[in-house]
Hints:
By secondary structure, the protein is mainly β. The chain has helices at 97-102, 114-123; strands spanning 6-9, 18-20, 26-28, 34-35, 44-50, 56-60, 67-69, 72-74, 76-78, 84-87, 90-95, 137-149, 156-162, 164-167, 173-174, 185-190, 193-198, 206-208, 211-212, 215-217, 223-226, 229-236. The strands form four sheets. It has a six-stranded antiparallel sheet. Strands 13-12-22-21-18-19 form a six-stranded antiparallel sheet, with no helix packed on it. The chain has a five-stranded mixed sheet with strand order 4-3-5-6-9, with no helix packed on it.
Amino acid sequence: MPVTLFIEILDGDLKGTRAPLREGLTFGRVGCDVNLQDPKVSSKHARVEVRDDGLFWLIDLGSSNGIRSEKLKLTEMPLRAGMAFRLGSTNMEVRDPAEMALDFDPQPERIPSWFDRVRELSEKGIKQAIMVSREVLPFPQVVKLEFSRGPQTGTHYYLGYGPRDLGPTSLDLPLFEPGLPSKCLQLRPENDAAILKVHADSLGKVLLNGRFVETSPLKAGDMIDIGNTRIQVDFEG
């Protein structure tokens, strides 16, 4: 498997160090591939594995402090470009050399606006059927979706009723993320909860708190990862 990603250490004694991702790469204080002089890091803290789906995962090796990402303590997490995490007190980020090269482009490619996206869909004649027979129900609390990474960073969706569909061709909740299936997930009210249901053609592409899911109730603080897009879940009211 060609190495296309690496982990960059953002602070501490090894700040600026870049470790190419590979099967078996280890992090810790002693006897590891990357030895961190961090008292909150265990001797053998974490290891990189390649799963059957071909993705790199960071696996906790029974450390005291685990893997921290977005205030969550994880035992494992997928490693994709742009994902940040912390071992002990040391912050790290998964980087893509190709994306870093783009940072120095004096004339970066213009990112299309939402108006451009909607116009493109209209020009192609893509129409989303509105199913009148589908029952619409209120969520127990207003669902707040905050985009914290990806092309829509800073965007907020507030959902008072459902079901609601999220995806690149959705005119309901558009997701501007290249290379994803047209439908990614649906949020719907059920049993006094907000339920996330991943569409069949997006199974294995949607992560909830670092794990692939098919259906799951949502709670405040949950993190949804779709491609390079990260969405934080919260509730109001």
